[in-house]
């Protein structure tokens, strides 16, 4: 298996939609099993200069497949454009294989060395221990808890707000 990290392209929308709707992924990213292909396609088409979306693409036996996605949305307000929100998802079958770590390394290199971002923030469900550990390895710290942030498997779930600061 070979893997590359690259910028998203419109042709990736089917694989991205599959990951968003997948059991074991959708519960942690606010995805829905009923999400339509057009929603993922529309999302990619709506990306602007403040959006930076990378995908992890693998090649197995001459077939290419997207197995992970990470994105930054840089704040457009002139007073807060040194900040961005981060989101990530990895295909269930490829979780725990280092793909999330590689995606995070690439997006943080972009954030630190090309976009000159100082603050990156994210939300993560309080029970998503693997994701929390990954974020902490990259310097994210819990800033607070958002109570009853979303519905997850028929119950209200809390979310940590985490952030990483670059020393300036």
TrEMBL record:
User: Which SUPFAM superfamilies does the record match to this protein?
Assistant: Acyl-CoA N-acyltransferases (Nat)
Residue ranges of every copy of the N-acetyltransferase domain listed in the record: 3-167
Query: What Pfam families does its record include?
Result: Acetyltransf_1
Kindly provide the name given to this protein in its UniProt entry.
GNAT family N-acetyltransferase
Question: Can you name the source organism?
Answer: Clostridium botulinum
């Amino acid at each position: 298996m070979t893997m590359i990290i690259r910028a998203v392209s419109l042709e990736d929308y089917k694989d991205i939609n599959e990951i968003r709707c997948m059991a074991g992924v959708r519960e942690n990213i606010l995805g829905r099993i009923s999400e339509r292909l057009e929603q993922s396609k529309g999302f990619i088409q709506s990306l602007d200069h403040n959006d930076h979306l990378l995908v992890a693409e693998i090649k197995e036996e001459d077939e290419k497949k997207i197995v992970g996605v990470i994105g930054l949305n840089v704040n457009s307000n002139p007073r807060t454009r040194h900040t961005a929100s981060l989101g990530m998802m990895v295909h269930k079958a490829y979780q725990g294989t280092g793909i999330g770590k590689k995606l995070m390394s690439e997006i943080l290199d972009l954030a630190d060395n090309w976009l000159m971002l100082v603050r990156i923030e994210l939300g993560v469900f309080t029970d998503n221990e693997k994701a929390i550990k990954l974020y902490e390895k990259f310097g994210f710290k819990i800033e607070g808890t958002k109570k009853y942030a979303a519905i997850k498997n028929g119950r209200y779930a809390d979310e940590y707000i985490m952030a990483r600061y670059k020393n300036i």
